[in-house]
Amino acid sequence: MASDDHREEGPGTRRGRPQLLWLAVPYVLHLGALPLVNRVRPVVFGLPFLFVWLLGATLLTPVAVWLTWRGDHRR
Questions:
Q1: How far apart are CA 35 and CA 33, in angstroms?
Q2: Whole-structure pTM value
Q3: Rounded to an integer, what distance in angstroms lies between the CA atom of residue 30 and that of residue 61?
Q4: Whose C-alpha in 2, 19, 22, 36 is 20 to 30 A from the C-alpha of 66?
Q5: Contact call for residues 75 and 9 (beta carbons, < 8 A)
Q6: pLDDT digits (tens, 9 = 90+) for 18-36
Q7: CB-based contacts of 64: which residues, under 8 Å, 6+ apart?
Q8: Nearest to 71 by CA among 27, 18, 28
Q9: Strand partners, 47
Q10: Mind listing the pLDDT tens digit for each residue in 32-53?
Q11: Cα separation values, 26 from 3, 13, 23, 31, 75, Å
């Protein structure tokens, strides 16, 4: 029985990719915080707060993906 502890790490192998945590940001903004922001008031820019929150989360999603991509290619 061979142990996986002695595997060779080549240039394509990556261990510990903390930059993938950026992908949790859109998830938390869209779903995790939804019960906390599900309010009609206050009104921001004439829109209910929930709409403004979802718009902001949607606009931050490409930024989180870009930060993940940038962190992955810096190695």
A1: 6
A2: 0.67
A3: 10
A4: 36
A5: no
A6: 888 999 999 999 898 888 8
A7: 22, 23, 25, 26
A8: 18
A9: 44
A10: 888 888 887 889 999 988 899 9
A11: 38, 26, 6, 8, 24
